[in-house]
Amino acid sequence: PGPIVPGPGCDQAALDPAQIIGWRPEELGLERFPFPVRVIAPGSAVALDYSAARLNLETDAGGRIGRFHCG
């Protein structure tokens, strides 16, 4: 994956799907994101707390990211 552009919080429009979709979260180096990241696996319980600054990475059964969104 390429560099992550720093910002004040999660900005989905600034994130390149090709740099995220299909990767495993651990391959991305989550510490590179300048905002909180939550990984959501299939069947996981997820609190409904909304945070515009947070990036949510939804993984498939194989552990690869299939969808991402801020919130």
What features would you highlight for this structure?
71 residues, mainly beta, 6% helix
Describe this structure in words.
- This protein has 71 residues and is mainly beta.
- Strand 2 and strand 3 (65-70) form a beta hairpin.
- It has a three-stranded mixed beta sheet with strand order 1-2-3, with no helix packed on it.
- The chain contains one helix and three strands, in the order αβββ.
- The chain has one helix at residues 25-28, and strands spanning 37-40, 55-59, 65-70.
- Helices cover 6% and strands 21% of the residues.
Furnish the topology, listing elements before pairings.
Elements: H1 25-28, E1 37-40, E2 55-59, E3 65-70
Parallel strand pairs: 1-2
Antiparallel strand pairs: 2-3
Q: N- to C-terminal separation?
A: 22 Å
Order of helices and strands: HEEE
Average pLDDT taken over every residue:
88
| Biggest sheet overview | 3 strands, mixed
- Helix fraction by DSSP (H/I, runs of at least 4): under 10%
Q: For the largest beta sheet, what order do the strands appear in spatially?
A: 1-2-3
Give a short synopsis of this structure.
The chain has 71 residues and is mostly beta strands.
